[in-house]
């Protein structure tokens, strides 16, 4: 029997328009960065395979198609997400201030069974700009926000310089995987009750 199991994890990336969501994904999956700004059109998701211990994991990373400007991402975008990546730009205060909205909107739309333990990750992007001189959100402030949300993991990244991008996505995969284990356990614990119930019902029907 093979110990290898392939696991599909759905990851969605949220945050204000222009913070670098598409660039982070492109850097991670295609090892490419483009300075040119183009609102993402039509792309649903990209995939990346990685191995974590004895597990083969396929990350299915969903990008918005620019609709984040109107905060109207359809329900299919959120459905079945295993991890939610929130991104802000360390040089733009508003993109940090709106994190609460993105966080709450995710919980409202995805409606996970346990909102307190659902895996989120925060990325503070574009730390390369101006050697950090135009930065307006301090690392301390970002970490405080993460602590206030039941200790969300935090990474400072640069999609342009490929700084911390792999590390962040590895953490994303591991966190999503850990949460998936918990779902498995709950599922198996539920089985005996279901069996008993079915037997009783079939007994009555005959
Ligand atoms: P999205 O709207 O969140 O998907 O943002 P994009 O990925 O389209 O990026 C918006 C703009 O920011 C583009 O011009 C990117 O080239 C630029 N950008 C993204 N990430 C970085 C980064 O880490 N550093 C710098 N200097 N520019 C970035
Ligand atoms: Mg985009």
From TrEMBL:
GO terms for cellular component: plasma membrane; vacuolar membrane. It is found in: Cell membrane. Keywords: GTP-binding, Lipoprotein, Membrane, Methylation, Nucleotide-binding, Prenylation, Protein transport, Transport. One of its GO terms (biological process) is protein transport. GO terms for molecular function: GTP binding; GTPase activity. The keyword Protein transport applies. SMART domains: RAB (SM00175), RAN (SM00176), RAS (SM00173), RHO (SM00174). It comes from the Eukaryota. Its main location: membrane. Signal peptide: none annotated. It is a lipid-anchor. The keyword Lipoprotein applies. It holds the Pfam family Ras. PROSITE patterns: RAB (PS51419), RAS (PS51421), RHO (PS51420). Protein transport. Probably involved in vesicular traffic. Belongs to the small GTPase superfamily. Rab family. NCBIfam families: small_GTP. This is Ras-related protein Rab7. It comes from Cucurbita maxima. The lineage of its organism: Eukaryota, Viridiplantae, Streptophyta, Embryophyta, Tracheophyta. The gene is LOC111471402.
